Amino acid sequence: MSFSTLGLSTELIKVLTEQNYTEPYPIQSAVIPAVLKGKDILAIAQTGSGKTAAFVLPILEKLQGQAPLENRFIKVLVLVPTRELAIQVNEVFALLGSRQMVRLKTMAVYGGVSINPQMKNLMGVEILVATPGRLLDLVASKVVHISEVKILVLDEADKMLNLGFKEEMTKIFEMLPLKRQNLLFSATLGKDIESINEFLLRDPVKITAEEEEGKNLNLISQIAYKVSEEKKGPLLRYLINEKKMEQVLVFTSSVHRADAVVVKLKANGIEAFAIHSKKSQSARNEALRRFKTGKIKVLVATDLISRGIDIKFLPFVINYELPRSPKDYIHRIGRTGRAESAGNAISLISPDEEHHFRVIQKKMKKWVDFIDAEGLDLSGADKS
User: Fold this and answer.
1) In terms of CATH architecture, what is 219-375?
2) Burial 242-275 (b: 16+ CB within 10 A, else e)
């Protein structure tokens, strides 16, 4: 199957060809025609399954030729849980819509930065990507109106509910028009998602992308090192140098640990930066830009921030510490092995983490080879 069979315009096909998208992922083949037909969607899809393009492409197609609404009334609202994901989704809208005859103005709004520039730039916006809290602030200021929204997208709805956005989302739903198209994307189908489905969606097309998630895992070479907690730092630096890693994403479980890892990396001559909720938005944006362009070798991130890190050909991911849930582990290592390219995922497992890692492997249905770090010479890993 090709994108040209899904009902997309020549302009969109040209952009996809330029970006080397040769054929659609399964979720895209299922979602795009259904959205074009005006159907509500309930899609269970992990990050990396192609879900963003699955809703961006048909939305861009549907809005072509439509008369604009009155100024500051938006047509499409995309709700996301994090600032980074808002920026990423907005970039996809801008990229895929770059060749359309009528360019649609899109914008991302989120907290952590001054609200004034966002208020000024909302003039003429038709597609708005927003975190719930900042959207409510803008609506309260009467600089944007959502009472005429034609399409509502909830991206990573499970994460929004887990992060405590339920009350804010309820307020937003009450402001939206009853007649609209709803597209709900979630990594899991829990009770909260089922309850949203019941009152939000009308006879939805239900789609799962589990097949694609499994396919992505097969592209990732996984290795685990048995190592004491105090030797994790030297082992990390040893691996970066020994494997000549030029671009590696390292995951920690806390803001404090992320900062501590960066301090030691820099002290040993390895350019690194931490990206987490305590950093300013401008600092986070700059770190991502420098990492993507190769100016920073190592980016150390927490799970929440990782939702907006999308790099097609990232070669290495390292779990300095394990996440709490197997799903978060799969999400982490899924930052590599994307766009049909192979990737490498390395986990540093202390004795206290071995049982939890066995649980993760069982849930993942994939067993990982172990290497005992005691057999490695880490003495040259530190300069200080």
Assistant:
1) 3-Layer(aba) Sandwich (3.40)
2) eeebebbbbbbbebebbebbbebbeebebebbbb
